[in-house]
Hints:
Blueprint: E1 7-12, E2 14-15, E3 27-28, H1 31-48, E4 55-60, H2 68-78, E5 87-92, H3 99-107, E6 112-118, H4 122-127, H5 134-146, E7 152-158, H6 165-176, E8 182-187, H7 195-198, H8 206-222, E9 226-229, E10 232-234, H9 241-247, E11 252-255, E12 260-263, E13 266-270, H10 274-278, E14 283-288, H11 291-302, E15 309-310, H12 311-318, H13 322-325, H14 327-335, E16 339-342, E17 345-348, H15 350-354, H16 356-363
Parallel strand pairs: 1-4, 1-11, 2-3, 4-5, 5-6, 6-7, 7-8
Antiparallel strand pairs: 8-10, 9-10, 12-13, 13-14, 15-17, 16-17
Amino acid sequence: MTEKVKALYIHIPFCEKICDYCDFPKLQYFRNFAISYLVVLKNELEQYTPHDLETIYVGGGTPTALEADLFKQLLDIIKPYSLGIKEYTFEANPESLTDDKIVLLREYGVNRISLGVQSTNDNLLKKINRAHRFSEVQKVVASLKNHGFNNINVDLILGLPNATKKLLSQDLENVLALGIQHISCYSLMLHPHTVLFNQGFRELSPDQSREYYDLVEQALLKHGFIHYEVSNYSLPGFAAKHNFAYWRNEQYYGVGLGAAGYLGNVRYKNTLNLEKYLKGMYIAEKEQLSIHDCFVYQVMLNLRTVEGLSLKYIKQQFAIDLYKEKKKIIDEFIANGYLMLVNENLIPTYQGMMILDTIILQLI
């Protein structure tokens, strides 16, 4: 593959507090680790020398957990790669996104913010060991708008301990009142070593999960949001450009602890071991893709969004006439309202997004 690499993901693993459900590559914030980390991150970036990028996404962890001077240092490290960027996103937590940091973000060309809100219910936030309260979210969103940010995402988690559909309705009402442009909703996933799992909490059943998603779907569509990807809703024109690089199965750089990337014909994953990372031993795993692997990724990722899967592209790229080979299955999914066939594109409906794993397995 010789396609141009247009996207860069940067992982900042530090958090002020570790949330009780979290399974992402993260570490308690210590200044001395952060100082060393930024030096190594700069070196790793220089190895790739990304250029002519269209999107940058800085995630975590919590990038805003860095103290002001280190936060500025991070922005300086990224600056050479951010010129002429279309979408430049920073993840942030409400309690650590100060006005000073907001001013810096604007100054360095960041034009999209993704806020980890998770719930608007203070009791629930306390229960999962979040450091913020909803009043701080309201304050931060107002501040972001005052400083000219008009592309703000809020993350919500469905199925937190003791949550109910009534609380979810309240969450949606509160979040919509913020006047933001993008909402991501994820079902709580609990991994065995997380605090909530050890306390005996479990994930929603598939039926409960579906009820929660139905509620989200109704509320957000009513307010003009488009359900453009399984977990993501946006107002027209505000779909996340960076994430489309993943869903279109395009190549991207991934740098930082635990980050993943896709270059040439190789998908790679960086080490989760900070000690190794700080010694410059970045990559832990590499997957050399066969033609079949590429086909599987294409189907699996393209079907997550309303752009859908181009049967024409599959035919050209992989010499597979998918409709001919899977006609009976595809026709059945279309008849049952799970897929639509529009201009040779297979597009999932909302019902289809809810059973996507089943559809994908049948097609590959």
